[in-house]
Each structure stands twice: as structure tokens, then as C-alpha cells.
Amino acid sequence: MDKLLFLGKVNDHYVDEAIDFCHNHFNATVILGDWGDPLPPSAYQWRGEYIISYLSRWIVPADILGRAGKAALNFHPAPPEYPGFGPVNWALYTGAREYGVTCHHMAARVDSGDIVDTMAVAIRPDDTVASLLDRAHVHQLGMFYYIMRLITIGRDLPRSDKKWNSNKRTRRDLDKLATLTPGMPEQEMQRRIRATSYGSWQPKIKICGREYRLSNGN
After folding, report:
1. Fewest 10 Å CB contacts: which of 49, 54, 61, 73?
2. What sign does the dihedral 76-82-84-87 (CA atoms) show?
3. What is the pLDDT of residue 1?
4. How many separate helices (H) and strands (E) can be counted in the chain?
5. CATH of the domain at 82
6. Would you state the pLDDT for residue 2?
7. How many domains does the chain have?
8. By residue range, what is the domain housing residue 141?
């Protein structure tokens, strides 16, 4: 069967489901990691036909991408309208009615490769970061199965006509979004709190040059 390199994050149910599929259909090398983990030497030694990045914490270097003889694909829990850092946060903050997931060819520059396919996810009025991400991950796994089954039967990959938004957000942009100030209108505060609250990670308020993190649930 085709040789495949699978890159994903540790301790994730959806990643485990994707790995099971790969092991059942490919001779797969699996590398998992968390934020800050270095990409191990085995990734640089691999050579084969497909690289699959699924919720991976790594930006894959160009020399590794070049080792994939057929395709290097990323399954991304966000639509092309929100490239860069914190897509789900920006979708909620801007009041978007729709979110989504994307499969795209990987390039050396993040969120720039040709788009293979997308799938829409409706945003509900009561959605939080956690609830919207949960549904996005379900849709992402469904897209993964669809694309990977095409590969297993030798079908050509789809080609989407969608393009990446040129407004790519950064970590600094998200940090600013998650910062409240005393003079900020109440409605703006609530928009930011909804868009940047996720478990123990909560927005902060800046008072007299000092920052205080809001407690969970506020």
C-alpha cells in the first residue's frame, strides 16, 4: 500500500480515529506531539507518497514536504476566511453565521496552499469557543474520511475554487482581542469574552498598566 507520514497532536480522540484509518489502509508512520515539542529526526528521514497533518502542532518544513511523492495535505479546523491564529475566536467575535473546516495542500508558508475541499459548519447563537470547535472537529473527521477514501481507491483529489483570505491573524492580534479595558462598552466586552473564553484560558482586563485574568465562568 502507499506509504504515508501522519503528523498529529497527542491525546486527542479525533486524531486517534484518523490514525486507525491510516493504519488500516496504508503503511503509515505516525508522529504525535504537543505545543513546543521538536519535530523528531524520523520525520526528516521519512520518504514516501503522502504526508497528512491532522491537528498537528508543527509547521512542516519545506524539505519534509518535498519528500511526499504525491501530496502533503493538512486537515484544518477552520475555513479559508479565517487564516492564521485563532480562527474560531475571530468567527465568533465578528458575528459570522458560518464556520467550517478545510483540507488543503501544504506549502512552506502556513495557510497558503491550494485548497482541496471545505465543509461548512453553522454557528448557533449560543455557541461558545468550545461548542463550535467540537462541531468543527466532527466535520473535520468526516472530511478526512471522504478525502482519504478517494486516495485509497485511486481517485483524483477535488480542487476547490475557494481562496485564502489575505487578512492572516497573528497571536498578537488574538492577545489584543482578549484584552478588556475599563472604558470599553459592555456590549464589546461581552463579544470579546464570548470569543476568547475557552476552559481555563480566559480574557484579561488591563487596569492602570496591570493585567488581571478573569476567572473561569465570568
Report:
1. 61
2. negative
3. 46
4. 7, 9
5. 3.40.50.170
6. 58
7. 2
8. 3-152
Show Cβ contacts of residue 83 under 8 Å, excluding neighbours closer than 6 positions.
110, 111, 112, 164, 165, 167, 168, 169
3-class DSSP assignment, residue 208 = coil
Q: Is residue 164 situated within a structural domain?
A: no
Distances (CA, A) of 74 to 106, 187, 204: 6, 36, 32
Domain membership of residue 158 (yes or no) is: no
For 38, phi then psi, to 5°, come to -75, 150
Spans in the chain with pLDDT lower than 50? 1, 218
Task: Show Cβ contacts of residue 137 under 8 Å, excluding neighbours closer than 6 positions.
Answer: 14, 55, 77
Which residue's entry shows cell 471545505? 118
198 shares a domain with 117? no
Residues 124 and 16 in one domain: yes
Task: Say if CB 205 and CB 182 are below 8 A apart.
Answer: yes
Cβ atoms 54, 28 nearer than 8 A: no
pLDDT of residue 217: 53
Q: What pLDDT is recorded for position 218?
A: 45
